[in-house]
Specification:
The complex is a heterodimer of chains A (830) and B (244). By secondary structure, chain A is of the alpha+beta class. Helices cover 52% and strands 14% of the residues of chain A. Chain B has 244 residues and is an alpha/beta fold. The chains are: A alpha+beta (830), B alpha/beta (244). At the A-B interface, α1 and α8 of A face α2 and α3 of B.
């Protein structure tokens, strides 16, 4: 009864908590819904085949998107023959995709995937006009507006090729005839089974499982097939290592024939694992961002709701005292506070979750646009995440008021007899201890470790520790700082200056409650945005110093450069060890490595085809010495035995091979950039030439953009909370100091002077918080930059987005002054 | 209610009560008995210890030394919970101001002690209590819809709802105009006369004190004087002036 009545009657002191919980739970439920919806989907273009057989998926570390090993060409042929023989299977179609980007009006079109024509039936996509492609012909998406018979230039990995459009389809992409597609594609990793109408899919899947479990296929990828010519590319390598004495020692055949299957059979939703690695990566990034948003929202909700209730309890000490005097036990007082929290929590959480459910579909679109979810992602509504968010929100509220309820219960009945609320209660001991401990942790972290690699971490810990510690100690730290900061006010003769100064000093709790959210927000914003931008600038600076070329060719509207773009480029791809583990590999030339990067070692051995250079740490870890033989298979599924020719330092991949070798075995990969010495020739469509400085600044632009958006999102969310906390403190404290202002009016202050006092006071407190935040964050940033520069051995500029930070402080100022004046006006108005 | 001043007839009894705050003794060995069915006023200048005496006698605060017995119970033997229950069951309070929980109606405020005790608050008895203070028609109003005098009367009704052994009032008319004060004080006097209610009032106002059967004067934590019999504001004021 009392809790309900109190919330109804004193709604203004719960409004802040309500708003914060509402916002927080809307964000939480949206994030949870999006996370629940962010499952892999069956790609549209494969949706028409009910059964797939895919190459076995390797176990991968969290956040690693290394590819799985494709089948060897022989395995593909054998599988295709046996799978298509299953009764009811109309056709077994190997999935072949590759880079193909038509050029219209001199610009590459956005869609950049090419497919073998036979894969169109996996969707199925149908011909809208014209005929299937033959050699030299192409079928395109009808939305490109190309009629059959037109000629179109298409960018492929080797370079632009002109095709004749033979037909159009109702699906995205470019379709080439199967033979031509095979020459542009990497190895096959999945085979789709197109079934006859009315066929028994379960029976087909069962037969496919039997076939893909067949043990004789295992050997196809191992030693005895190594070097088997595939499309004539790898022949002639066998003799090179025939006499190698270490061959048997490094590669015992037994270790590569575990009882692994040839493939996994996928049906129904399981086919979603066939989504592209890029989509998978995008979803993974989205998951990080959404989880971050979720955790941040929940955490800040707890803190702000907790402090809202704490302020409310502090203002109502007399009421609690009265209750205690007329016979409420501490337990009853506590239950009352919990009851109030429950009323607010249930209402706010229900509203927040409902709002989250309404807004979630829009969030889906935003996430796709920004690049945190793959195209086609939608947020679906499901009960469990919503119910979970609701329950979580209510529990969160109760956790948040734990401390406030304890304080309320400790109010002595004597408080009922207090004349006025004097704001001089000491800080609880636990808060002292925690605050000091956090500050100590921060300082210790700043002073101690300077070891390489950990510098960013220790800088972060230092700053966050001190910020959190100061936030806790704010009732002690803020007043003396306020006295210092308000020194100028004492010089004038006006009453406002004196009032501002004395109010800010004496109402410890209000001052601290306003300064703290500003401190935390400004401190964290400066720290995080400054760190992100400084790091990006640092990497750009390092890149600029390690490029020894006159110009760089970079992709322009394309995912990468074709071989025809010119310049010296490397190819970044993967090779697979005998057990299927991927190694990142760089296909490079000594000339290229001269021009860019810090890689050092016997680079000249990259000229012959059968050599591999290993990163020093990898060679050491595996105990591979020069001369050892490493059997690997490539992206196209073929295998080779490469001789370890030495080790390299500072390589950008696990291993280096010659560019020619890698290109023969990976017809699909594109170069990221190419270096030009002297004057650059026209790179053709889909590429442009930039100078080194521009390249250095732009190189990671896409990744930087995602990181920056995620950073802004976090900062904006936390600023919104700070804003709510500030407005809330202002409104609540105005309610509590109505009498003060009345007295001020009675002693001759004009309404204008009252407003001026209130505005100046809140402004002073906000600036104080901002100043403290800067004082903590800036040294930490300088430290991080210094350590970073030392580690990178380059000049790293300190980049802080001042306009952004300035805007943030301005928002806090306007909100604090505005809400304080407004609240004061309504108090004194009548 | 017998006329004898035996210990048994004492609703509240303080024996050598000392209460110190740090080095300062707010009460310095006070012994006093408060007879059933009487109205006693405790007077004294600011800082004389009269509020502390009320706190100790009512179980809001614990004496540093000495014994307080309320309705036969030694408060020193009770823990915090026991004290709370005793306040709820045996003691009523009327404070100077802010007597009521602002979120609750007059009726709900009156019922509060019963509800806190987990006892059913019969609407009839709550209405009856409000009627006794002349506020039967204001039952549904919240405190901010009531005048200062009405608020004090609601507080009196609440203090009486549990039929307490003793009612403590701390400057009950401190925030009221003289006309309203007279009404409230008349009401308190009536409760003592008609219902035999025991009442202890702390005040510095001679008019308030003149409604009492007995006035105890406090100074520097000690009882320095006592008045009883027919009292008028003038005699009380004269005695006050004399004792200062």
């Amino acid at each position: 009864m009392l809790s309900f009545a109190t919330v109804r009657e004193r709604w203004h002191s719960f409004a802040g908590g309500f708003v914060v919980l509402f916002l927080g739970m809307a964000l939480v439920s949206m994030s949870v819904l999006a996370l629940a919806s962010a499952r892999p989907r069956v790609p549209d273009r494969l949706a028409g085949a009910p059964v797939f057989v895919s190459a076995p998926r390797a176990e991968r570390a969290e956040g690693s998107f290394a590819p799985d090993r494709p089948w060897s060409p022989e395995t593909v042929t054998s599988l295709l023959g046996r799978l298509s023989a299953i009764p009811g299977v109309a056709q077994a179609v190997p999935e072949r995709t590759f880079y193909a980007q038509p050029i219209l009006d001199g610009r590459p079109v956005p869609s950049e995937r090419g497919y073998a024509w036979s894969t169109a039936m996996l969707a199925p996509y149908r011909l809208i006009a014209g005929t299937a492609p033959r050699n030299g012909e192409v079928v395109v998406d009808r939305s490109l507006g190309l009629a059959p018979g037109t000629r179109v230039s298409v960018l492929t990995a080797p370079g632009p090729v002109t095709y004749t459009v033979s037909g159009t389809v109702d699906g995205p992409g470019v379709f080439l005839d199967d033979a031509e597609a095979a020459s542009l594609s990497a190895g096959v990793r999945a085979i789709g089974l197109v079934v006859e109408p009315g066929a028994n899919v379960a029976a087909i899947a069962k037969s496919a499982t039997v076939i893909s479990a067949a043990t004789e296929e295992i050997s196809a990828t191992t030693e005895d097939k190594a070097g088997t010519p595939s499309e004539g590319s790898v022949s002639g390598q066998e003799p090179a290592f025939a006499g190698s004495p270490t061959a048997d020692a490094t590669m015992p055949p037994t270790s590569v024939t575990p009882s692994q299957k040839v493939g996994d059979v996928l049906t129904g939703d399981d086919r979603s694992v066939l989504e592209s690695r890029d989509d998978e990566r995008t979803r993974w990034i989205g998951m990080q961002v959404l989880t971050g948003m979720f955790v941040l929202s929940a955490l800040v909700s707890v803190l702000v709701v907790g402090s809202t209730f704490a302020v409310g309890v502090a203002q109502r000490r007399r009421e609690f005292g009265l209750l205690r005097a007329v016979g409420a036990t501490p337990r009853q007082v506590r239950a009352m506070v919990y009851g109030e929290a429950l009323v607010v929590g249930v209402a706010a959480t229900a509203a927040g979750v409902a709002a989250g459910a309404l807004l979630a579909p829009m969030l889906g679109g935003v996430l796709v646009d920004v690049g945190f979810e793959p195209a086609g992602f939608t947020v679906g509504l499901s009960l469990l995440p919503l119910a979970g968010s609701f329950a979580g929100g209510v529990v969160l509220t109760l956790v948040a008021v734990w401390s406030a309820s304890r304080r309320a219960a400790r109010v002595s009945p004597l408080e009922a007899l207090r004349e006025a609320d004097v704001d001089n209660r000491p800080m609880p001991r636990l808060r002292w201890i925690t605050g000091l401990a956090l500050c100590a942790l921060g300082v210790a972290s700043a002073v101690s470790s300077d070891s390489e690699g950990a510098f960013v971490m220790s800088g972060l810990v230092a700053a966050v520790g001190v910020i959190a510690g100061l936030a806790l100690l704010s009732p002690v730290v803020v007043p003396p700082v306020a006295r210092l900061a308000s020194w100028p006010f004492t010089r004038g003769r006006g009453a406002v200056g004196m009032l501002v100064r004395e109010n800010a000093r004496s109402s410890v709790r209000r001052t601290a409650a306003t300064a703290t959210p500003v401190l935390v927000t400004v401190g964290c914003a400066v720290l995080i945005t400054g760190m992100v931008q400084t790091t990006a600038a640092g990497f750009a600076a390092v890149r600029a110093t390690t490029i020894r070329a006159n110009a760089v060719i970079v992709p322009d509207g394309t995912p990468g450069l074709t071989d025809a773009s010119g310049g010296d480029s490397s190819l970044f791809s993967a090779v697979f060890e005998a057990n299927g583990d991927p190694l990142s590999v760089l296909g490079a030339t000594p000339e290229l490595l001269e021009k860019a990067g810090d890689t050092s070692g016997p680079l000249d051995v990259l000229r012959p085809d059968d050599r591999i250079l290993l990163a020093d740490w990898l060679a050491e870890e595996r105990g591979l010495r020069p001369g050892a033989v490493l059997p690997v298979s490539f992206e196209d599924g073929t295998s080779a035995r490469l001789t370890v020719a030495g080790t390299v330092e500072n390589a950008d991949a696990d291993a280096l091979v010659s560019r020619d070798l890698l290109r023969r075995h990976d017809p699909a990969v594109l170069a990221d950039e190419a270096y030009v010495v002297g004057a650059a020739a026209d790179p053709g469509p889909g590429a442009r030439v930039v100078d080194v400085a521009t390249y250095a600044a732009e190189a990671d632009a896409e990744e930087d953009r995602l990181v920056w958006i995620a950073t802004l999102l976090l900062v904006v969310v936390s600023t919104a909370y700070a804003a709510v906390a500030i407005v809330n403190t202002m409104v609540m404290s105005a309610a509590g100091r109505g009498r003060d202002l009345e007295v001020l009016r009675l002693s001759g202050a004009t309404p204008r002077q009252v407003r001026g006092t209130v505005a100046a006071e809140s402004g002073l407190v906000v600036l104080l918080g901002a100043g403290l935040g800067l004082v903590v964050a800036l040294p930490a940033l300088f430290g991080i930059r210094g350590a970073f520069a030392e580690a990178m051995n380059a000049e790293v500029p300190l980049v802080i987005p001042w306009p952004f930070i300035g805007g943030l402080i301005a928002v806090c100022l306007v909100l604090a002054a505005g809400s304080a004046v407004l609240a004061a006006t309504t108090k004194v108005g009548h | 209610m017998g006329g004898s001043a035996s210990l048994d007839a004492m609703k509240v009894h303080l024996k050598a009560v000392r209460r110190t705050y740090g080095m300062v003794a707010a009460l310095d060995g006070v012994t006093a008995g408060f007879e059933a069915g009487t109205l006693t006023a405790i007077m004294g200048p600011s800082g004389s210890g009269k509020s502390t005496l009320l706190h100790c006698a009512a179980g809001l605060d614990r004496p540093t030394e000495g014994t307080v017995i309320v309705d036969g119970t030694d408060l020193g033997t009770l823990n915090e919970h026991g004290l709370t229950v005793l306040r709820r069951e045996r003691i009523g309070f009327v404070f100077q101001a802010f007597n009521l929980v602002s979120a609750l109606t007059a009726e709900q405020n009156v019922a509060l002690p019963l509800r806190l005790a987990g006892r059913p608050a019969a609407p009839a008895s709550v209405r009856q209590a409000l009627a006794e203070v002349g506020l039967a028609d204001r039952a549904g109003h919240r405190p901010n819809g009531l005048s200062g005098g009405e608020q004090q009367r609601v507080a009196i009704a609440r203090a009486l709802i549990t039929r307490p052994a003793v009612v403590f009032a701390d400057e009950p008319t401190g925030q009221l105009d003289s006309e309203t004060s007279r009404q409230v004080l008349g009401m308190l006097r009536g409760l003592v006369d008609d219902h035999g209610q025991t009442m202890i009032v702390v005040t510095h106002d001679p008019v308030t004190a003149s409604y009492a059967d007995r006035v105890i004067f406090l100074e520097d934590g000690r009882i320095v004087d006592e008045l009883s019999g027919a009292l008028t504001a003038e005699t009380v004021a004269a005695r006050m002036a004399g004792s200062c």
